[in-house]
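#struct-help
A.M.: can someone run this one for me? Single chain, 214 residues.
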Amino acid sequence: MRIRWHGHACFEFSDGETTIVVDPHDGRSIGLRPPTATANVVLMTHDHYDHHASRVIKGDHQDVMMGRGEFEVKGGIKVTGYPTWHDYNKGSERGPNTIYKFSMEGISLCHCGDLGCIPSEDVIKEIKGVDFLFIPVGEVYTMELPDVKRFIELVNPRILVPMHYMVGGLSFRLSSLDKFLDMIPDESIDFIGNELEISEGDLPDTKSCWVFDH
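D.P.: on it. Structure tokens below:
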């Protein structure tokens, strides 16, 4: 399976036959390069401009906005969408958010979108122990770092991937990646570049934090 980061919260996942892009931005409106991807499926965790620009993704793709429950997408991949909130006040500030969970080539993946508070116990139970947890760490529009830390402890993923933090050119302010990494043991952090090819047998035995570079 290939994983590629397109900046902000946009990730591309491909097993060679099916490509899924989650939370595409258009680049221009947030000060970053636009995604360059061709996909079969585009999943969007919520209806905000920096997460729903499916129009910039090439290909005849199936678009899913805040899909809830279990559903099947192109390629026969089963996806489950879990309802969450984009803020600490049950969506009254920024609305709803969806966590997506799916598997490719035996590897379980969980993309949290703009998660604004720790989800319910039922949601935690469903995503607990995933192989990859993609979590926003920029604080300003998402969970504050003490809650991020608690959420990670509850989910206990094998590999943690930070996203949605301050990078050069971004047109609004978020907390820095370094602020988040200060919470992670140095020996657990691995800087792996923009793209990763991984199989189930390559998954690490110890808990890790993998930092992508756009």
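A.M.: thanks! The chain has a mean pLDDT of 96.
D.P.: also worth noting: Residues 2-212 form a domain with the Metallo-beta-lactamase; Chain A fold (CATH 3.60.15.10).
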